Every structure is written in C-alpha cells, then in structure tokens.
Amino acid sequence: xxxxxxxxxxxxxxxxxxxxxxxxxxxxxxxxxxxxxxxxxxxxxxxxxxxxxxxxxxxxxxxxxxxxxxxxxxxxxxxxxxxxxxxxxxxxxxxxxxxxxxxxxxxxxxxxxxxxxxxxxxxxxxxxxxxxxxxxxxxxxxxxxxxxxxxxxxxxxxxxxxxxxxxxxxxxxxxxxxxxxxxxxxxxxxxxxxxxxxxxxxxxxxxxxxxxxxxxxxxxxxxxxxxxxxxxxxxxxxxxxxxxxxxxxxxxxxxxxxxxxxxxxxxxxxxxxxxxxxxxxxxxxxxxxxxxxxxxxxxxxxxxxxxxxxxxxxxxxxxxxxxxxxxxxxxxxxxxxxxxxxxxxxx
Length: 347
What we know:
The chain is of the alpha/beta class.
C-alpha cells in the first residue's frame, strides 16, 4: 500500500493539488481561496485515507515541521529520561515531535548536535545539558543562538535576562524539608552528599540544595556540619559498598538524629545500613531523600522525600517553547516551579 499523497486526496475530493496543499500544508504562495466547506471535505478525506504530512514537504512549502530538539547529558541521572518522557507527552499534545541529542561536556560535540538540529529545520530547542556543564555555559549559550527559539531546563548559572527557562527552586524545597524535620524536634541534622567527581565542577542543582540546607539550619539556629559538602567525593557514582561505611562513620562520629541524603537512592542505602547497625529509623535517626522516586512509598519505612515536580516542569518547558514558536508569546520568561514535600514513615 503506497503512502497517501496530496494528489490522491485531490482526486478523491475533486479539487486541485494546490487546493489540498493550501489546506494540509498551509502554503501561502498562491491566490487560491478555499471555502470552509471544501476545506472540511479535504480534511475528512485526509483522515479517512490515513494521510500523514511529510516533514520535508512542509519545509519546502515554508511551513514549520513541528519538530523540537532536546539536548541532554548522555551520562546524566535517570531523572533526565523522565524529563524527556514528560516532554514528549506534552509535545505530542501540542502536535509536535521530539529529536533528542545526547552529548557530553565537549563544546564541539554540542555545536555539532545544534548544527544537526538546525539542518533538520527544528522549530525550537530545549536544553538540559547546560546544567551539567557550568564551565561552558557561555559558549553553549552562544552556540544555541543559532536556533531561533530556545528554552533552558534549569537556570543557566546566574543569567536570568534574555532567556526562556524553567527553574525548579531546589533551595526552597530543601529549606521546607529541613524546617519540617526541625519542627519534629530534630537538632543534629546531617546532609549526606556523596557524589562522583565532576569534570566540569559541581552541578548548579547540587549547589542550590546545599545552599537551602545551610540557610535553613542558620534560620533554625542549628550548627552546620563542617565541610559536609566536600567530605565524600568518588571517581564514579558510589554504590552500597561505599555508602555503608560512610553511614557508619557519620553515625559514630557526628551522632545525628536526622540524615538528609542527596537523592532517594542514597537515602535507601542509608536506611538499609542503619537497619544492619541495629539503629531504628525514624525512632533513633530520621532519614529523608530528594526527588521522590517511584520506589519511595515501597521502602520499609517508606521514604520522606522532596518531589521536584519533573512532570510539571517538563510540561512548562514545552509550553514555553511552543507558545513562542506559534507566536502566542514573544517576551522572555522564567517559569519557577516549587517542589513539594512528601512526608512518609522515615521521618
């Protein structure tokens, strides 16, 4: 069965190919007027015959091809792929499709992906990768200027003007978590931040969570563990065999009554280690994570965490972009997303 062409639809309806093109490709280069009744018959025939528009034909006709580029870090955390999944869902609802580029912190590689996106005629681009590459913010932003419409997922460094971005207020999310733990009578709170050594420096998201933690402790008049954010650095992302000795060290040396882990995976490993040590959670030590991963309700005890609203932020990024592609908005805008604290048994 051959692909349905414009001429096939024209013959079915009894009009010219140009008329069908005016309706389905929205071409503007001729004087043909199409009545509402004729347009309705063309659309009905196209649907009945299973017609799908050809992206190349749309470009040649001067019409957008409904493609959005998404640039992510190839070795990013699994949350990166959750973001893309939600973005695909949001884009599909607006009639757009995604092309995903997975890069590393190499400006030449990033430029190559942007050039590829440009050659495919994408209508706009969402960038995740900049958040992982703080040392090349400026070069990346200059390279992305080749694309007319760009949205940054997470604020690129300190820049807030002349950009469109979705910013998740991670510092505020951490503050709310600490405040709640303090309200429950905990006084010695340790922020457990083991992480792999990053070639481009610590992620902005890490820095924001750490800022929220220190500011919340200061607000409560509590002591902040010295050099907590620099104590545990690994060449690769640490697993249980590295985490367990550190948890024991923290418990024995610092004697905390609450531990907040950098993410939910580390929080789960912390709870497991406390159980092996005979330390009760939350009676002896409360434990909380960050990100609110899907497994959090199923741990024993179930894990308190901060939901960063990846779904909401991803939909907002697509909406920001498509609104500008379709000339619904023109001014630059930052959409701020507030995380939500999800309390469970572990605190």
